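PROTEIN DATA CARD
Card holder: Aspartate aminotransferase family protein
Chain length: 444
Origin: Roseospira marina
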Amino acid sequence: TAQGAGVPPSVNDLSSFWMPFTANRQFKAAPRMLVGAQGVHYTTDDGRQVLDGTAGLWCCNAGHGHPAIVQAIQAQAAELDYAPAFQMGHPKAFALANRLAGMLPGDLDHVFFTNSGSESADTALKIALAYHRMRGEGSRTRLIGRERGYHGVNFGGISVGGITNNRRFFGTLLTGVDHLPHTHRPEKNAFSRGQPAHGAELADDLERLVALHGAETIAAVIVEPMAGSTGVLMPPKGYLERLRALCDRHGILLIFDEVITGFGRLGSSFACEHFGVLPDIVTTAKGLTSGTVPMGAVVTRKGIYDAFMSGPETAIELFHGYTYSAHPLACAAALATLDVYQSEDLFGRCAALAPYWEERVHGLKGKPHVIDLRNMGLIAGIELEPRPAKPTERAFEAFLKCYEAGLMIRTTGDIIALSPPLTIDREHIDTIFDTLATVLDILD
Ligand code: PLP
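Structure generated from the sequence above:
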């Protein structure tokens, strides 16, 4: 093309970038361009400050532009920009793995690095399949997900995921997959604060799948302890415990996708700690580096790692990995981020702000179109009544109006999802809910 290296393309020309999960034509007709970020605010190209009500995409838990994280990334780029992780190592990769093992409960002690939540999901599923095979239970190839589950966009993740549109265009994908029912029961649980009272028995559907397929064919169950991307669906009281007990009874691995719930979102380090339920594998990403450098991690219990360590010592135990697994910039960003979480007690801050957050969330009860409100930690789901025959329109309009009013929210279907940086304060929380209340009042 005429534009050579070093010539910045015109920002007026938006045609080349095929935007992900975006209505491209609509966006390009009326772009929303972010050019800077500091603390809990974005700066737009027309110089406005927009309060980040979503921590980017549920990831910037330490806020934006934290000097300690910025400095760590800059220094790492100068010191060691890249090192292979296949048959080679660098110290920060091991330091970070140790650090994560120390943060996770029980014997969740071994860490496999990826670059995203999607890669973490697929990595966890592959580890589960290979684990059973290593132990001579190679018939366990079936993977169980859940309706309304989101495990990213790669083939494994969309196969166990429960979002039709994520599969609709891509063929049959993994066979030998089945799904538990989702746990969203607004007819019984609407306007619950924290965990809803009804629905633990929905975990028992796993017994039905075991009876249908045979336990000896099932490798793993993967669920989000709290489903974020499909609308902030809290686990009913007792549900996760029941799922754990059933997996134990039938020798099935339990995978928690903690890509959103990890790193303080619920007011604890991880959801497994928060709910006191120990899974066999935990997947993470997002908050691991506070969104600054792409990185994910899969953490497994000791017995899983050990099962792979029984063959010849010169043999590669797991045929899996990414060029950028444990990328030095990501490791440096993650170590600095974990330091910030600790030194600023951001998980404790989340827990301390949660009651006020809850009050403000449920203060929207009675506002126009609001049919359910859900909250936990610093996360909220605000479900709006869809417009007749026009699902998603009302919530999307709320998103546009909030953005104009200086607030970034996220919508999924007709549900508004909020998940601000954990560095937020009460005044910002007031701004979020005052803005939302005003927008709901003027929305038709
Ligand atoms: N798993 C869960 C629970 C998520 O919420 C997400 C992203 O929102 C993913 C996986 C996918 O992560 P990524 O977009 O980094 O691939």
